[in-house]
Specification:
- The chain has an 8-stranded parallel beta barrel. Strands 17-18-19-24-21-22 form a 6-stranded antiparallel sheet.
- 27% of the residues lie in helices and 19% in strands.
- It starts with 10 loop residues before the first strand and ends with a strand.
- The longest helix has 16 residues.
- It is an alpha/beta fold.
- It is built from 17 helices and 24 strands.
- The structure holds alpha-D-glucopyranose (GLC) and calcium ion (CA).
Length: 544
């Protein structure tokens, strides 16, 4: 049976504004990005996920849209966009984009029309209340930065609802006209060459917000409608949810495989950081034991860091404190009482062993990995910038001016590249790492190639293996009679243990990364010897 492309792909997330500036005005753009497609293809990326690039007042990094059918003029034109998707395709890469339809910017003409006239057809596109609801102080996504979810609008003479900032008015999903418009938006971008969407804030998008629903019933049913629509227009289309789900909520979102295709695995992500902090595999094992199996054509998205804070809100309070203590001990590193606003490399003390370990876990645990731009070279963060901006600094290409991101004067850049210290662009940049065959960049390029050569990890059935060592995570993935194993030592000491590999008496295993044949012991076990924070990928097969 043909496999779905997204189940065994490598995704790479980037923000056009901060990736590469092609015309030298200080802002990244589609021309600059198109010129870096060779770089991404060379890294072994299969699909690029673009963060919002639509016209926006940029009060939430572009997640506040004023026109769903255009490119922000600072980033390029629709022509540049189409040229980019075409060239991505020529380089063997697909493109996914953000679908931000939980809310629009309050500057959007729809909201302007809605607030100005109660009789406007757009009035019903948003969520209004004449009185301030009693729970207005609850449920804000940015505690400490935004203290209400209902804001009074003088022109509308009513309160409007917003989960996020007060400049992001929530759309009313129960309105047939809004759902119809979402069909148009997705259809438009599919026509222009994208293969799918990362659905921003999905649980909030589908909630009915106390509105009359005219028999809509279960809010999750809408996902079936959206899935049917995109898949009818493009057989390959894929919906990837941003949804920080509890295990018991997972089935509602995947249905029988007829709702979303993938979802970011926030549950495992938070437990993975707890495991790294404790140097103990236990939290990862427990997190998987709690998750239900997905329908066969669905997939998790594995990730380490994103453009937001590392959200640890699903951990127990004491567990959260443990991760804070290990990876974000200073108050200025923390955000919203639940997250850490740092990049991966600094959290892990720039310890190459632990950075590789974290990546190896992301690549071998069941799911489709999503890399974040800059992590492939171990970029740092700038804690002097407010809130989540700390992890959104420009890509560091060279040791030249502005880290090679832009030829504009430094003062013209909207966000400064990191210039000083251990993570400054003179120390950390693509060009230097290209020259060094042992660099993180070259290491990652190699392991991504191996990952693609090992579809067992993306497509196989995963089982965890008991090793008797709490710091070891060992799992096997079986696909069509071939078995891949991955073993990880989360601890700071060397460990040796026997791995049951179910091989015939005269069998052997292959070390996938070292390209080496390994003999088994007489009892058919493979004796694993892992250095501190070490990892190994192995394959047992019918004879390689
Ligand atoms: C998502 C995005 C985040 C944004 C929010 C509101 O959580 O990842 O960056 O602020 O949605 O759109
Ligand atoms: Ca530019």
């Amino acid at each position: 049976m043909a496999e779905h492309w997204y189940k065994n792909a490598v995704l790479y997330c980037l923000d056009v504004k901060t990736f590469a500036d092609g015309n030298g005005d200080g802002i990244g753009d589609f021309t600059g990005l198109a010129a870096r497609l060779d770089y991404l293809a060379g890294l072994n990326v299969d699909c690029i996920w673009l963060q919002p690039f639509f016209p926006s007042p940029m009060r939430d990094n572009g997640y506040d849209i004023v026109d769903y059918y255009n490119v922000d003029p600072r980033l390029g034109t629709l022509g540049d966009f189409v040229e980019f998707t075409r060239r991505a395709k020529e380089n063997g890469m697909r493109v996914m984009i953000d679908l931000v339809v939980n809310h629009t910017s309050i500057d959007h003409p729809w909201f302007q029309a809605a607030r100005q006239d109660p009789a406007s057809p757009y009035r019903d596109w948003y969520v209004w209340s004449e009185d301030k609801p009693a729970d207005a102080h609850e449920g804000t996504v940015f505690p400490g930065k935004q203290d209400t979810t209902w804001t009074w609008d003088r022109e509308a003479k009513a309160y409007y609802f917003h989960r996020f900032y007060d400049h992001q008015a929530e759309l009313n999903i129960t309105s047939p006209a809004v759902r119809r418009e979402i069909q148009k938006v997705t259809g438009f971008w599919l026509q222009l060459g994208v293969t799918g969407f990362r659905i921003d804030a999905l649980p909030f998008l589908i909630e009915h917000k106390g509105l009359p629903t005219e028999g809509m019933g279960d809010p999750h049913a809408y996902l079936r409608e959206l899935r049917h629509h995109v898949q009818t227009l493009c057989g390959d289309a894929c919906l990837m949810a941003e949804a920080n789900l509890l295990p018991e909520e997972v089935p509602d979102y995947f249905g029988d495989g007829d709702k979303i295709h993938m979802s970011f695995n926030f549950w495992v992500n938070q437990h993975l950081f707890l495991a790294l902090a404790r140097r103990d595999a236990g939290p990862i094992l427990r997190s998987y034991a709690q998750l239900p199996a997905l329908p066969p054509w669905c997939q998790w998205n594995n990730f380490l860091r994103s453009h937001d804070e590392l959200d640890l809100g699903r951990l127990q309070k004491d567990e959260l404190q443990e991760v804070f203590a290990a990876f974000g001990p200073e108050p200025g590193m923390q955000l919203y009482g639940r997250g850490i606003r740092r990049r991966l490399a600094p959290m892990l003390g720039n310890d190459r062993r632990r950075i590789e370990l974290a990546h190896s876990l992301m690549l071998t645990l069941p799911g489709t990995p999503v890399l974040r731009y800059g992590d492939e070279i171990g970029m740092g963060d700038d804690l002097s910038l407010p809130d989540r901006e700390s992890v959104r600094t420009p890509m560091q290409w060279t040791d030249g001016a502005n880290g090679g991101f832009s030829r504009a004067d430094a003062g013209q850049l909207s966000l400064p590249p990191i210039a000083e210290g251990e993570y400054g662009y003179r120390q950390v940049n693509v060009e230097a790492q290209r020259r060094d065959s042992d660099s993180l960049l070259n290491w990652l390029e190699r392991v991504l190639r191996r990952r693609k050569e090992t579809p067992e990890f993306g497509l196989g059935e995963c089982r965890f293996i008991e090793t008797g060592r709490p710091e070891v995570l060992a799992h096997r993935c079986d696909l069509d009679g071939v078995t891949a194993f991955a073993v990880h030592n989360l601890g700071p000491r060397r460990v040796r243990f026997d791995l049951p590999v179910d091989a015939p008496a005269d069998g052997c295993v292959h070390d996938i990364l070292a390209r080496r044949r390994e003999e088994l012991q007489k009892d058919g076990h493979y004796r694993v010897d892992l250095e501190p924070y070490g990892y190994r990928w192995l394959r047992r097969d019918a004879g390689e």
